[in-house]
From TrEMBL:
InterPro entries: Luciferase_dom. Residues 41-103 form the Luciferase domain. This is Luciferase domain-containing protein. Pfam families: Luciferase. It comes from Actinoallomurus spadix. It comes from the Bacteria.
Amino acid sequence: MSPGHRTISYADLVIDRFRDWPLTECRADCPPGRALALRGLQIVHLHREDVAEVLLTQEVIRRLGTALTASGRVDLPAVTGWVRVHLDTVGDLFLLQSLVSLAIQANDPGAGPLRRTITTCPTYVAERAPRPSWRRHRTVTRRGWANTLA
């Protein structure tokens, strides 16, 4: 690689792609990372270079959840209103663009009062959740001893 050559991360491409949208780049409320906000409400979080989290509503997720998970590119964390999009290809960026468009429509404060509560993003929740106990137990099977997780 030449000294002047710089690789661009998918997170950088996301920020660049939404530069002309009605979104403002800012620091994510739940660090680390950057966010894109719609009139002060963060609707996209970029905690890592290869994953974007988008704030949809539970109603939108209920309607599209099956199709989103079938794509193999989107995870639906526990009932948070957020979805995670894995960013590995240009096609993933187009999928993210569609989801951000939906998020803008679903979360636009100018469209009237919000009919839902704002929830923290799944990365923030996962980092603060207590870790499960991974004690190993030995159990007897037909073929002898086996280790199992508790």
